[in-house]
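FORM 7B: Structural annotation worksheet

SECTION A. Query
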Amino acid sequence: MRSTILVTFFLILTTFPAYADTVTVPNVFSNGAVADANAVNANFSALASESNENDARIAAIENVRTPISSVPFTISASGSYYLTGNLKDLTNGEGITITASDVTLDLMGFTLTGTGTAHYGIEITGINTSIANGTIRAFGQAGIYGSNNGSRATAIRAIGNGTLGTDYRYTGIRLSGKDTYIERCLTVDNGGYGIIAGTNATVTNNITRSNGNTGLSVGAGTLVLNNTVVSNANDGIYVSSGALVANNTVMSNGQWGIYITGSSTIVKSNTVRDNNTSLSFLLWKVTSGQRQRRFLHSSL
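SECTION B. Predicted structure
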């Protein structure tokens, strides 16, 4: 009976591949057959050997990434970096400065905290930088600031930054270069803007709420899709020319719901209401020379 159970258990194990490769076992048994102990042990040895090799592969992958266990910290070489825990910057400078290009920084769900007077949580001067998966709070200027091209912020919570002012410098996430990508981020209670993106950017599936100025401001040619922009002190969405603003919820902002400054912008399928309640039907700012704007199917 014990031999039969062992054989059945082994057959189940051998139907699944290992982490990075398929296990090849030396012996195969028929279901219900009595197994030779030496043959079973040989098969389990093969499984153990493959498991050890997988551990080595995983360790090699982890060794490629560089840990960050204290701040301030400067990333001056391309590669992958990660936080090892919650970190607090007690200086008046930047928490993390990224001077290299082609950098990936994973906050690993941890929080980078400033003192309220430190400049930036993360300052980017390189190109093609990706920052993801964590919280940045209580920095005096911006939670994340970068002016170069190709930066990306994903699943970042920028909360209570910009404590030193209310203009564009005091922002939750400010990626003002070209071809930036901001997705699934939360910007709340920042002193100035919630999110600022440059030209040809993609800003999608974010929530920006209760910031001290405009909720979301983007440059020309930007896609603004599926965002929730609520209860910001100034405009909800501020957009330049040639943009697509679609499927956003823009509510209860202190000035205009959607403010467009250029031509050829398409606004469609948004929910826009309760912005600047004394002018409830003037949800888009209209100035001269903007005849190419199109407004399609937005709900008032």
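SECTION C. Observations
Confidence is low (pLDDT under 50) at residues 1-20, 278-283, 286-297. DSSP finds two helices and 28 strands in the chain.

SECTION D. Sign-off
Analyst initials: ____
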